[in-house]
Design goal:
The protein is an all-alpha fold. It has one domain (30-201). It is built from seven helices and no strands. The termini are far apart.
Length: 202
């Protein structure tokens, strides 16, 4: 009897570990899929045809707001916090069930369109491919994409659970963990980007 109970407990434990392993693998696959599709959205934004007037509007808006504010800041800490604050706003909004993933893909596409506009209004000094490659050679870009992919994938899973009216306890835990990990990645990314900017200005 004791042996049967022991083997039963072992079987349950084995089954549980398999389920946990399956969940982990599914999450990793979803993160990889979201990562690839966010990268694709960024690239589409860079190469989508834009009317010159709209490209000029986007480039002017970017230069008058984000670029000017960032370049006016002095010191590593101020630049890092500026980047981190803007990225954290995107991260938090992307964690919202249902609407969060839509917002994240729109943001990736919009970021690509800004790069598109900067290339289109550069009077031929840089091409669209060059601005994309320059963006992708920055380590901060890959770290940001990873952070956004982790939270967006969790938002998708949370949305599915809500639509299925399933238990949200586990998904809420995973979302909290995803936000913590992604926030740390964004802090590292912001630090790297700020250091790169300071080094380039010297």
């Amino acid at each position: 009897m004791v042996a049967m109970e022991g083997s039963g407990a072992l079987a349950i434990e084995e089954r549980g570990s398999r389920v946990i392993g399956y969940i982990k693998s599914q999450r990793l696959r979803l993160i990889a899929l979201v990562y690839a599709t966010l990268l694709a959205s960024l690239a589409i934004g860079v190469f989508v045809p834009l009317p010159l007037s709209y490209a000029e509007y986007l480039a002017d808006l970017y230069n008058r707001t984000i670029a000017r504010e960032y370049l006016a800041l002095r010191g590593f800490a101020n630049k890092t916090l500026f980047i981190l604050f803007n990225n954290m706003k995107v991260l938090i909004l992307s964690s919202v069930p249902v609407m969060g993933p839509i917002f994240m893909y729109y943001t990736a596409l919009s970021a690509g369109m800004v790069l598109n506009a900067l290339a289109a209004t550069s009077s031929g000094r840089v091409t669209h491919l060059q601005v994309l490659v320059t963006s992708l050679t920055a380590p901060s870009t890959w770290l940001e994409l990873l952070a956004f992919s982790i939270v967006t994938s969790e938002s998708i899973l949370l949305s599915v659970q809500i639509l299925k009216k399933g238990s949200l306890k586990d998904e809420a835990f995973y979302m909290a963990a995803a936000l913590i990990v992604s926030s740390a990645l964004l802090l590292i990314s912001a630090s790297v980007e700020a250091l790169a900017t300071i080094a380039a200005s010297r």
